[in-house]
Design goal:
Chain lengths: ~325, ~375
C-alpha cells in the first residue's frame, strides 16, 4: 500500500473576515496526480500556498511527507517543488545560474547537481537555451524553466499551480505527458487548474474547490457519475414508426427515449455501454430504418463541475463576488 | 566545523554570489552603484571646495575657556569684545592652561583661548598681538567656527584707549595661533562624501533589492526553498559589504588623487568606519523592506533619510553645533555616531578602538535594526509573498 504524501485536516485560511480556504480535508497517496479544479478565486492557490509553507493556516493542520507544514516547515521545503505564478526565477540570471543557486540552497552535492541539471535540460530540450537569461525567454520556455528549477532537487511532491495557463497547446500537452510520467515514477503532483478538461485528461483524482470548500472529490469518472449516470445515445434516423420506438424503449438500461424526426435520443444508465448501442442499432436495422449517424455523449467534468457548484448562475454570482473583492 | 555549519555557510555564500551575478548582468546598476553615485558626490563636493571657509558659527552655547595669562587691560578688553559679540556666551574664566587642555575632548570644553603674557606689550610696541586657540581634536568642524567668530569679534576690538590717545601707537592686529585639529575643507568634505555615497547606495541596494525580489516573486521562491531568513539577510549583507569596500576605495582614490584631500586615518580604520555606517544602513534597509513597500516607496524613503541625515546627524553641521531639538535628534540618530567615528578616524587619525562609546552605540543599533527587521520579516512573511 502506498504511503500518504499529503494529509490535511480542517485546513482553513482566513484573511480578515474573508475565508479563502474553509476546512479542507484531503488525503493524497504517494505517486498520485491530484487535480484541484475550481474557478479563479476559489481558493486553489491559497490552499497550495499553505501546503508549500508560504502561508500559515488559520485553523487545521496539514502534513507533507509526514512533516507538519507549520512546525517542520524547513523539512517540508526540502521535499517539495513549486511552480506557481508568484514564485519566480531570477530574470537577470541564466537558467543554468538559477539552477546552480537553487541546487546549493537544496544542499545538492555539486556532481549530483550537475548531472541532474544536464538531464533536466536535456529532457526539456533546454540545452541550447541554458545560457540565455530567464528574462529573455518566452512565457512557455519560462514555465519550463520554472518546472526544471522545481525538479532540480528531485522533490517527492510537486505543486503545479495553473502551469498550462499561457502555454501553447503543444507545450501544454508535452507538460501533461511529462507530469503523468513523473507520477508514474512515484512523484506526487498537485495540479491546480481552472481548465475543466485538463484533470479529465491526466488526473488520477480530482477535487472540486469552490468558495474555499472542497465540495467533491473522486476520480474524473466518479465525478462525472455523480452528476448523471446516464450517457446519451444520439442516432440520426428518419421516418421511424411507433412500434420500433417501443421496441427500443423495452431494452434494459434505457431510461428515456425521445424521437424528433430524424433524431432519436436514448439515455443509457451505463455510460458508454456498447451493448445498448448494438441493441438499438439491431432493432433499427431489423425495422429497415436508415441510419445516417450515431453519437454517444457522456457527461463531462465541466457539466459535473457546473452541477456540483450549483449551476451556472451560482458560478456567475461567485465570479462577480470575486471580481468585487479584487 | 560540522557538516550542517558548512551547509549553512554555503547557502549564505550562494545568496551573496547570486547578488553579484545579478549585479554583473545589470550594467546600469553597476554604473549607478560604483560610478555615478561615488563620482557624483565626490565631484560635487570637490568642485565646491571654494566654500570651504564658510562655517556655521553657532559657538554661542559651546563652553570655551578664556585663559588670561597677560592680565592686562588689553587682554581684559579682548575678553569683553568676545562676550559682547554674543558668539561666546559660555566663555569660562579661571582655568589654567594645563587644566583646560586636559578637559578638552571630554565634553567639558570645546576650545580654550589663551592670551599669553606680553600680549599688551606687543601691541604697544606696534607688534601683532598673539593669542593661542586650542581646539578639541575630537570635534572636527568646531575649530573653523571658533576661529571665524574670534576673527569677527576682533574687528570691534580696541586693545587700549592709550593706543588711540597717543596717536603714535598703531594697532597692528592680533594673530590667532590655532592648536589642535586643523582640517582642509575637502578632508571634511570627504567624510561627508563617503557617508552620503554609502547611505545612498546601501539603503537602495538592500531595501530596494528586497522590494524588487518581492515584486518579481524571487523572494517567494527563496521562501519555499530550504534557506533560512537569517542566511538570506547575511548573504545580502556580505554582498553589500564587498560593494561598500569597493565604493570606499573609489571615493578615496578620487578624493586623494583628483582633489588632493589629505587624510590622517590608516586605511583599515577608515574602511571599518565606513562599514559601520554601511551595515547600520543595511539593517535599516532590511527593517524598511519588512513593511512590504514597493521600489518607488523605497526611493522616496531614501530621499527623506538623506535629508534627515543632512539636517540632524553631523553630516554638514557638526553635532556639537546643533541646538535644541536638532541636537536631541542628532543624539538619538545612530548615524550621528557613525559619522563621528568616520570624522575622528579620518580627520585626526584617532584609533578606532579608542572610540568605545560610539562603537557601542553603533553595535547596539545594528543589532537592534537587524533583530527587529528579522522579527518583522518573519511576522510579515505572508504579506511579503507575491
Amino acid at each position: 500500500m502506498s504511503e500518504i504524501a499529503i494529509v490535511t485536516k480542517e485546513l482553513t485560511k482566513k484573511f480578515g473576515n474573508f475565508t479563502a480556504v474553509d476546512g479542507i480535508h484531503l488525503e493524497i497517496p504517494e505517486g498520485q496526480l491530484f487535480g484541484l479544479l475550481g474557478p479563479n478565486g476559489a481558493g486553489k492557490t491559497t490552499l497550495v500556498r499553505m501546503l508549500c509553507t508560504l502561508l500559515e493556516p488559520s485553523e487545521g493542520t496539514a502534513e507533507i511527507a509526514g512533516y507538519d507544514i507549520v512546525k517542520d516547515a524547513a523539512e517540508v521545503r526540502k521535499r517539495i517543488g513549486v511552480v506557481s505564478d508568484g514564485v519566480s526565477l531570477y530574470k537577470d540570471l541564466t537558467i543554468e545560474e538559477n539552477l546552480k543557486l537553487f541546487s546549493t540552497l537544496y544542499d545538492l552535492p555539486s556532481n549530483i547537481a550537475k548531472d541532474r541539471m544536464h538531464n533536466l535540460l536535456d529532457m526539456f530540450n533546454f540545452k541550447e537555451k541554458s545560457k540565455r537569461l530567464v528574462g529573455e525567454l518566452s512565457s512557455g520556455w519560462m514555465k519550463k524553466a520554472m518546472i526544471i528549477a522545481a525538479l532540480i532537487h528531485d522533490p517527492k511532491i510537486l505543486f503545479l499551480d495553473e502551469v498550462t495557463t499561457g502555454l501553447d497547446p503543444q507545450s501544454a500537452l508535452a507538460l501533461r505527458e511529462f507530469t503523468r510520467k513523473l507520477c508514474d515514477e512515484g512523484v506526487t503532483v498537485i495540479w491546480t487548474t481552472h481548465y475543466m478538461t485538463e484533470p479529465e485528461m491526466i488526473c488520477d483524482k480530482v477535487g472540486i474547490i469552490f468558495e474555499g470548500r472542497l465540495i467533491q472529490m473522486g476520480t474524473p469518472k466518479e465525478l462525472r457519475s455523480s452528476v448523471s449516470e446516464q450517457s446519451l445515445l444520439e442516432i440520426e434516423t428518419p421516418n421511424l414508426d411507433h412500434s420500433t420506438l417501443k421496441k427500443i424503449e423495452e431494452i434494459g438500461n434505457i431510461c428515456k427515449v425521445t424521437y424528433d424526426d430524424p433524431i432519436l435520443k436514448a439515455s443509457c444508465i451505463d455510460e458508454g455501454d456498447k451493448q445498448i448501442e448494438e441493441s438499438v442499432t439491431k432493432i433499427l436495422l431489423d425495422a429497415g430504418a436508415k441510419i445516417r449517424a450515431i453519437n454517444t455523449k457522456e457527461p463531462t467534468l465541466e457539466e459535473a463541475f457546473i452541477s456540483l457548484t450549483g449551476g451556472e448562475e451560482e458560478i456567475d454570482r461567485f465570479m462577480e463576488k470575486a471580481r468585487q473583492k479584487i | 566545523m560540522t557538516m550542517s555549519n558548512l551547509k549553512y555557510f554555503s547557502k549564505i555564500f550562494a545568496i551573496m554570489f547570486n547578488e553579484f551575478r545579478i549585479l554583473r548582468r545589470n550594467r546600469s546598476a553597476i554604473l549607478i552603484s560604483l560610478v555615478v553615485i561615488p563620482f557624483f558626490f565626490t565631484a560635487s563636493l570637490g568642485a565646491g571646495r571654494g566654500g570651504e571657509g564658510e562655517t556655521y558659527s553657532a559657538t554661542s552655547e559651546l563652553p570655551i575657556a578664556f585663559i588670561d595669562e597677560d592680565l592686562s587691560e588689553a587682554s581684559g578688553r579682548l575678553y569683553e569684545s568676545l562676550v559682547r559679540s554674543e558668539d561666546f556666551n559660555m566663555l569660562l574664566q579661571g582655568y589654567r592652561e594645563e587644566d583646560a587642555l586636559a578637559t578638552l575632548g571630554k565634553g567639558g570644553l570645546y576650545a580654550a583661548i589663551v592670551v599669553p603674557e606680553g600680549f599688551e606689550k606687543r601691541l604697544l610696541n606696534n607688534e601683532t598681538g598673539i593669542i593661542i586657540v586650542h581646539v578639541d581634536d575630537g570635534s572636527p568642524g568646531v575649530d573653523d567656527a571658533v576661529l571665524s567668530n574670534i576673527d569677527a569679534s576682533l574687528s570691534n576690538f580696541n586693545p587700549n584707549p592709550r593706543i588711540k590717545q597717543t596717536g603714535n601707537i598703531e594697532f597692528v592686529g592680533v594673530e590667532i595661533v590655532m592648536k589642535g585639529a586643523s582640517f582642509s575643507g575637502f578632508a571634511v568634505g570627504l567624510t561627508i562624501t563617503l557617508t552620503m555615497v554609502v547611505v545612498f547606495a546601501t539603503f537602495y541596494e538592500i531595501a530596494g533589492g528586497m522590494s524588487r525580489e518581492r515584486e518579481t516573486g524571487t523572494y517567494s521562491h527563496l521562501l519555499v526553498s530550504p534557506v533560512s531568513l537569517g542566511s538570506i539577510m547575511i548573504g545580502k549583507t556580505l554582498y553589500d559589504v564587498c560593494l561598500n569596500v569597493m565604493r570606499t576605495f573609489i571615493v578615496l582614490g578620487l578624493a586623494i588623487y583628483v582633489y588632493g584631500a589629505s587624510i590622517h586615518a590608516n586605511l583599515l580604520s577608515l574602511v571599518l568606519s565606513v562599514l559601520f555606517i554601511a551595515i547600520l544602513t543595511m539593517g535599516f534597509g532590511f527593517l524598511v523592506s519588512s513593511f512590504g513597500i514597493g521600489v518607488r516607496a523605497v526611493v522616496i524613503i531614501e530621499f527623506f533619510l538623506i535629508l534627515f541625515l543632512f539636517a540632524f546627524s553631523g553630516f554638514f553641521i557638526d553635532k556639537e553645533l546643533l541646538r535644541g531639538i536638532s541636537q536631541t535628534i542628532a543624539t538619538v540618530l545612530p548615524w550621528s555616531y557613525g559619522i563621528d567615528i568616520l570624522k575622528r578616524t579620518t580627520l585626526i587619525g584617532q584609533p578606532l578602538m579608542s572610540l568605545t562609546y560610539q562603537l557601542q552605540i553603533i553595535a547596539i543599533s545594528i543589532i537592534l535594526f537587524y533583530g527587529v527587521a528579522y522579527l518583522l520579516l518573519k511576522l510579515s512573511r505572508e504579506r511579503l509573498v507575491k
